[in-house]
């Protein structure tokens, strides 16, 4: 049986792997296909597509947009869109600039607490367009200001800690529209983590195409519950590891077994959407 991993992060957001390493890891796991889903970014897609092509692995373009619906943070995965779509790129650039301002604000708060970190040090370490709290945490560790990422989050960066800054988010409907108009399918990420099932009917109404049933942090029972929900709402089923690089010394990539046939259905839906979008 062939397996896929449709939820992976790279150094273009808060993961650590570069394109070649991702392709190498995918090959080691004997995956038939992968998608790159960096937070609010598509920067790593062209390079990963190339590395996957060289390694004989099917690549699906992807992203994980940060959205908010009824006060809940939602992550919306986009798949199979055109990474050169002008509106998608403009909007993503806007969200990335908001992320960069947020890093500056977190650093300013740290400085007020007499923690001498510079925004430049965070940006240099992040070396990508979509920096976030993990990069601030890593920079604190690199500068010897915290002993570990956990300490950085616990003391400063967790919600309601002194250097925490809320994140601006687009609405769920906006995220769906942005992905659709770029020719992609939109999927609710790890619903079992957010525990916000009440938003699902409204999101389906708004055009959401699928739901991530298989995820590292979903138990077998949770996966089963979302598979039934997907069936009830006629939604596509996706899944992936949400690998960010090494986790306790081991990468998560390939550890969630997602059968390839789910990707066939996803691609068929993407093709239908693209055909419907063409002028008749
Ligand atoms: P951001 O999108 O900038 O708010 O950062 C969120 C990311 O921070 C999440 O995707 C996690 O990967 C990471 N994160 C959140 N809490 C912790 C923690 N306590 N320790 C390490 N990483 C964390
Ligand atoms: Zn992440
Ligand atoms: Fe997520
Ligand atoms: Fe993720």
Describe this structure in words.
This protein is an alpha/beta fold and 280 residues long. Helices cover 45% and strands 19% of the residues. It has eleven helices and twelve strands. It has helices spanning 19-28, 45-55, 86-112, 119-126, 133-142, 149-157, 172-181, 191-194, 200-205, 220-232, 261-277; strands at residues 3-8, 33-36, 58-60, 62-69, 72-79, 170-171, 185-188, 210-215, 236-240, 246-247, 250-251, 258-259. The strands form three sheets. The chain has a six-stranded mixed β-sheet. The protein has a four-stranded mixed β-sheet with strand order 3-2-1-12, with helices on both faces. α1 (19-28) packs parallel to α2 (45-55) and α4 crosses α5 (133-142). It is globular, with a radius of gyration of 19 Å. The model has no long low-confidence stretch (mean pLDDT 95). Residues 64, 75, 189-190 line the site of one fe (iii) ion.
């Amino acid at each position: 049986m062939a397996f896929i991993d449709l939820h992976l992060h790279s150094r273009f957001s808060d993961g650590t792997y570069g394109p070649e390493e991702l392709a190498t890891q995918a090959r080691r796991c004997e995956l038939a296909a992968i998608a790159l889903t960096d937070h609010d970014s598509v920067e790593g897609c062209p390079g990963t597509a190339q590395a996957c092509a060289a390694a004989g692995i099917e690549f699906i373009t992807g992203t994980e947009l940060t959205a908010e619906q009824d006060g809940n943070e939602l992550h919306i995965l986009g798949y199979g869109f055109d990474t050169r779509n002008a509106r998608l790129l403009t909007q993503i650039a806007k969200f990335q600039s908001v992320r960069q301002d947020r890093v500056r604000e977190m650093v300013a708060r740290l400085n007020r607490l007499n923690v001498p970190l510079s925004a430049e040090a965070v940006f240099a370490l992040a070396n990508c367009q979509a920096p976030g709290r993990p990069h601030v945490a890593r920079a604190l560790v690199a500068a010897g200001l915290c002993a570990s990422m956990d300490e950085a989050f616990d003391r400063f960066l967790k919600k309601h800690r002194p250097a925490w800054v809320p994140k601006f988010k687009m609405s769920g409907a906006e995220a769906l529209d942005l992905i659709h108009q770029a020719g992609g399918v939109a999927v609710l990420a790890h619903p079992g983590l957010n525990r916000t099932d009440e938003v699902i009917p409204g999101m389906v109404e708004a055009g959401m195409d699928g739901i991530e049933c298989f995820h590292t942090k979903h138990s077998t029972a949770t996966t089963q519950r979302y598979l039934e929900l997907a069936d009830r709402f006629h939604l596509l089923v996706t899944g992936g590891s949400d690998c960010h690089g090494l986790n306790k010394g081991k990468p998560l990539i390939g550890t969630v077994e997602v059968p390839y046939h789910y990707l066939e259905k996803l691609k068929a839906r993407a093709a239908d959407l693209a055909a419907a979008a063409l002028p008749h």
